[in-house]
Amino acid sequence: MKTQLIIILSILFSASGIAQPTVSGFTTPAKDTIITLPKNSITLTGTAIKANPGHPILDTTWVETSGPAATITNPANRMTTTVTGMVQGNYVFTLTATDKQNAASATVKVTVVNGVLATGLANFNVARNNSGILLTWQTNMEENNSHFIIQKSIDGSNFTDIATIASKAENGNSDVQLNYSYQILGEVIAAGMNNFLLAMCLLGSIVWISRLKNIYKRVVLGLVCMSLISCSKSVTPPSNVIASKTEFRLKQVDLQGHFTYSEVKLAN
Fold it and tell me: Is-contact 42 81, C-beta < 8 A?
C-alpha cells in the first residue's frame, strides 16, 4: 500500500512540474501598435511552442481582455485572427495556448486614435506684401493641439518645413477664435524674369555693336559673349528671392504627435 501511494504522489509531483508552453503574440507590423481611424481593423498573430515532447499544443485562441467593443474572427488557424469594428480607445488582446497539462498566455496592446484632429481651421491665406509673403490662418476651436508647421514646395509635391508656430490655446485647448500669422521676408519675382533681363541686355548690345566698324564689332561682340556666358554660370539668385510658383500648406500637430494638412495655397 505504501508503495502504491508513493508512486501516485510521484506522478502528481512530476505532472505539476511540467513546463508551460512558450507563447508570444503580436500585431502586424508591430507588437503593440497605434492605428488611426477610419482604419478600424487589425491582424493579430502569435506563436506557441510546446515545452515538452509529450505535450503538444492542443488549442490556441484570442480573446479581448479590455477595451471598447470589437469583433474577433476565428479562422481554422486561430493562431492568426482579425479584429474588426474597432473604435477610438485602448485595447488589450490575449492569446492563450493549451497543451495536455498547462496553459500559457501573451498579450498585445492596440491604441485606436481619431484620424480627424479636433482643430477647426476656419481659413488659411497666403498673400504677397511689401516685405515678401504673409501667411495668415484662423481656428474656430482647438482641442489637444500642439503646434503648426509651415511648409513650402516649389514643385507641388515635395514640401519642406520652414517654420514652427506654437498653438495659442492654453494646454492645446480653446473654444474661441484664434488668429495666427507668419511673415516670410524676401523679394517675390516672376518666373523667367532673369531670362527676360538677360535678353534685353543682349539686344541692347547688338544695337550698339551694329554702329561700330567691322574690326571693332568682332572684338566687342567677343567680349560681350564672354561676359554673358560668365554671368550665366556665376550669378545665383539671392537667398531671399521667393518664386511666384511657390506653394504653402500648414501641418497641424497634436500633443500625441498625430497630424493633418491644410489645403495647398499659392500667394494671391
Answer: no
Question: Which regions in the chain score pLDDT beneath 50?
Answer: 2-3, 5-16, 189-196, 231-239
Q: Contact 61/25 with Cβ under 8 angstroms?
A: no
Three-state DSSP state, 256? coil
Superfamily of domain 119-186+241-266, CATH level 4: SOR catalytic domain (2.60.40.730)
List Cβ neighbours of 163 (8 Å cut-off, separation of 6 or more).
149, 150, 182
pTM above 0.70, yes or no: no
Distance separating alpha carbons of residues 144 and 170, to the nearest angstrom: 10
Look at the block and give the residue holding cell 547688338: 206
Query: Among positive and negative, which fits the CA dihedral 224, 228, 229, 230?
Result: positive
> Cα–Cα distance between 35 and 44 in angstroms, integer?
13
Q: Which CATH superfamily does the domain covering 15-113 fall into?
A: Immunoglobulins (2.60.40.10)
